[in-house]
Queue: 4 jobs
Job 1
Amino acid sequence: MNKNKVLKIWLELGIGRGTAIAKALNVSRQFIHSTAHGNKGISNTSWEAFTYAMSIVELDEMRSQKNVEQNIVKAARNSHSRDSEVKNMSLAELDKWVDVLGRLAA
């Protein structure tokens, strides 16, 4: 799966992720949106910055049970996608967020 598609799916799986990753990378939301939907590929160095920012955003989301529950619902919805790449990524995300919810509840 190409990096643009991974970013696009990742943005769809959470609420406010576009704004959060833009803030973490110190770029505009429009830049994030155009990168996720663009045909131009993401370089390896840029991808490292994106993945680092994605991790920061996810760690922040893990603090709130409400955010975790919202991510579970979105991942569950996307897990029914006809696109096998979207489905597989959504199932992996669903597993991750259910595990996080279990740790929050304990």
Note: The CA atoms of residues 26 and 52 lie 13 Å apart.
Job 2
Amino acid sequence: MDRNKIKERLELALRPAEPPRLEEVLEQVSTHGVLRGPVDWVFPGWMLYVEYATQKIAETFQLSEEERNQLLDFRDTLKRLLLETQKQTKAKLASIYKVVVEGTYRIENNKLYSLDGVWVDVKGDFTPHIPIHGISASTRFPDC
């Protein structure tokens, strides 16, 4: 992937975005099974979807108080993970974008590296992958 293409894709990922609407999120998830767009749209979109799915589960199934609490804990944990992942993703993409604009990056083994060690996979036309570290949680989805 050439420098201009990388820069263009990073600009798209980092551009400001209006908050997602539930209808948009449901459309993309039902059509594609994924959300695509800027970081500031995709992660809030998944959080909105998690909130929606949790509400639908609670409305559809007769849950005991314990099951309901487990479901809400699952929702809250997942939203917290998404928020932290959004922060890390945005910071790493900004770091990569900066070195691409400045021309101070290096590419080795299909990975583009910034000066601070942040890297992203850049294999042909595949979706770039960014490793996210230090985010984990233990939660159990309720057995309804």
Note: The two ends are 47 Å apart (CA to CA).
Job 3
Amino acid sequence: MHHVEFDTGLTVLRVTSPRSTVVPELVCTRLVDESGPIHWVDARNTASTHVLYDQAPSATTLAPLRIARAFTAYQHHSLVQALARQASARSSMLVAPNVDSLYHDDDLDEWERERLLAASLSTLRELGHSLDVPVLVTTTGDTVSPRLDEYADHTLESVTTRVGTRLDGDGVESVGYWDRHGWQTTIPYWADRYGTTDALDPAIAAHDRGLLAPDLTREWEPPTTDRASGPLTRSTPAIDGGEA
């Protein structure tokens, strides 16, 4: 579980895998928090229906999600340009996972891939600023392009830990980690649910420091009388077999 305060402009998220589930998680969270549509330009089949339904609290949550899939750099570039006609100030986010991946394919010359990628990144960034909406794109370490740093307004990094995935960057708070055994929550998660306290209760603090009077902490002793029937007694066998 990650809570991210996205700012206007282009945010570059570096992920560990092209099929990372971090983006579906962030998109579903955004769909819950915001009412506007999200436009998703997909590359490398990141927009898995199975993963999206796993991340969404209900099927209706995904209704405002608009997905367009690209399989070549030319298709990706065309879909990004089409966002200028489809997105609006009502949109809550624009998403382009693996934004530079298709531009590294062998069917493009070096000069052409740089030109197309620069045009796509420029369009995404300008749309974010002109529409006042966040734009989230991802890249992996094996395909990262220097162009991304040139156009990025903000950067985030996905880090794999032994308890799950953590996001590092400004405006990010990881409140839990998911693995095959369940949720591993964090202190910020519980603080958000139940609030925080400025100081320990004085009585608890005094007890922890051993300052309470002995008679307040001594072991409880059971009563020797019963309120309803008087003194408590018990039968014990006498030595000669009679009652004591």
Note: The helical segments are 22-33, 49-55, 73-86, 110-131, 146-151, 187-194, 202-208, 214-217.
Job 4
Amino acid sequence: MSSRTTATGGTSSSNRRAPPTTTPANVASGRATPATQPTRRPRSSSNAAASSSSVAVNGPKPLFGVEIEIFVKLRPELERAIYTRRQRGEQLDEEYWRNWNFALSNEKGNQPLKDKQRECVGQAIEALIEGALGPNHHWKCEPDASLKEWALTEPPEPRKWWGIEIISPPMSAARQWRQEIHEVFAAVAEEFELWTSTFCACHVHVSPGPLKSSKYNFDQLVQIACASHFWEEALKTILPEERKINRYAQPNATVFANAEYNTVSRYTWAPVFQAVKSAAGTAQKFAARYPSEDRTKYAYAMFACLMAGAKVTDPDPSDTAERYLSSNFLPLPELGTVELRRQAGVASAHSTIQRALLALTLHVSALQYDFVAAASRRDHPTQAELKTELSLAIKRLPASCRGDRFLKCAATPTCPPPPAGGTSNPYEIWHPDPSNERPVIPTRYPAPSYPVVVREVVEVLMREGKQLVLRWVTVGRTRVRRVCRQLGIK
């Protein structure tokens, strides 16, 4: 699994807010308010809208990038067409089609041949993305053998799926990034079927922005590290079951400030937050021995290693640092990003956008939250507190980040598990209608994703011998019917 990517940035110290003052009334909530507050009249709706717009314009504009682990399979009609042309001896312009091994299975063994096949897959997908976005798009597609294709059993023709990682370039939250993600998925789905499972994840790298050259300062890093511990229990409640505890995205408290974290109910959050601040101070003192032009990089490296469980006294802290954490600080020295690894895999643009929005709102919340006030708490924040906090955070992001209910992707106690072997997210392919428990198409899918979604729904239901029941929606209705006709379903 990769930890490269995709966004670099930071916020200048001149833009930071002054530390908020607190009163006993707001200590419990953890959110700062002025020590004295004049009585304010309710604002008119027009004034409130203007204020919200002003916050978005002047608020944070982080950069981010996504790493999408996913299984893909060549569409049968395209596979037959290419195979037939090769059998006839026709010349194929694309080298990846000339090298495509139609007889190769993804089962264990044949590693050199499978590596070459994954390269062909990556080249084909990059060509599709270039056709959609034009040259210099900077999206990459790389093989990912860690996805265990050989273990797949549920998708159609399980031995024909290949694990890859689609990596975005740095994208600004202030630009039309959602449309770009839609275009990428629509392009890939033209020639490949998509599948996600518990093997997959969607990692999101975030930096403060607005420029690639911007850097995190240590006050911001302390805030993010405190947030990674503070919101852990609440975050679990909005994640699918297999992402609550996952060996590739362990809670940060597993390796840093574990004793302090486990005794919050006795000693409050103050020891946890103090441990983070001490680590930041240690990292900066460590870097002071190096030339001034290298100090930031070495300070980043040491802080990242300390957050990952390494010790200053280790001969090489990077060797003992744990990279498989929920919030991974190890990309800081090279990429200038913090990576959120906790979220489940995706098979649509809509779910990818949800993952990005969750990471962005956690980032914005962390930079603004008053952990000085929260330090006196002896409990863990609840899911309701987290959702309230994230709903406030998204209002501070640019307007290009709004319009998707990103928390709907969360697993909830009332939502049954997805079809066996399918996506780990119950909303990824289909979800039951609570009124009659009949399979329905999710109503929030964008039009470009409908053919893929419907095909996957139909295949799942046909394998289980269930009658297909579709909820027709206005957007994408023509595409839904076309796919059903192609599959011979009325």
Note: Residues 189 and 452 are 7 Å apart (CA to CA).
